[in-house]
Design goal:
- The chain is of the alpha+beta class.
- It is about 50% helix and about 15% strand.
- It has 5 helices and 4 strands.
- The chain has helices at about 10-40, 45-70, 75-85, 110-120, 130-140, and strands spanning about 95-100, 105-110, 145-155, 165-170.
- The chain has a 4-stranded antiparallel β-sheet.
- β1 and β2 form a beta hairpin.
- It starts with 11 loop residues before the first helix and ends with a strand.
Length: about 170
């Protein structure tokens, strides 16, 4: 018997709950493979593999979101803001987006990855180097005129009010 998920049978509230479930499951899978490599080969190897996975995944994710939103080739600051809000983990993390002039600041106020690592008594994830790969690749897929720089991210925390903060500059 062929089985196909029929999403139309669910209410809007149930579909939102399902998106949350899928987002948490995806993030759990990301953490499980990372921790497996971390335990077996150490943090440096895990970070190397993480960077390579994000280098590829972030472009795939950005292209799909860009297509879904029907964004133009040069989507600009507003396009990037819309796209960031549709990332898989954006739905389950608390964040803030601020546009000033030709820049967009993305702030992750609360990060489930770091929260989970703290809860498990693990060292914080040194995500700055991978974040640069991830956020640069994502932004440049949305609009190739963006540059990305880290304002604050572990292990280089300059803003203790958030988990991480990234600055995107649009060069026209």
């Amino acid at each position: 018997m062929e089985s196909k998920l029929n999403l139309s049978q669910y209410s809007k509230e149930e579909l939102i709950e399902l998106i949350t479930l899928y987002s948490k499951n995806w993030l759990a899978m990301d953490g499980v493979w990372f921790q497996s490599v971390e335990r077996e080969l150490g943090m440096d190897a895990a970070m190397q593999h993480d960077a390579e996975a994000w280098r590829r995944f972030t472009v795939i994710e950005a292209k799909r979101i860009k297509e879904f939103l029907k964004l133009p080739e040069h989507a600009g600051l507003e396009g990037l803001a819309k796209a960031l809000q549709l990332r898989f983990y954006a739905h389950i993390n608390r964040d803030d987006i601020e546009i000033v002039g030709n820049t967009l600041t993305y702030t992750a106020i609360d990060c489930r990855v770091q929260t989970a690592r703290k809860r498990k008594g693990m060292a914080l994830h040194p995500c700055k180097s991978v974040g640069l790969v991830e956020y640069t690749g994502f932004a440049q897929t949305i609009d190739d005129r963006f540059t990305c720089e880290c304002v604050s991210c572990y292990p280089d925390i300059t803003d203790a009010s958030c988990c991480c903060k990234w600055l995107f500059t649009l060069h026209e």
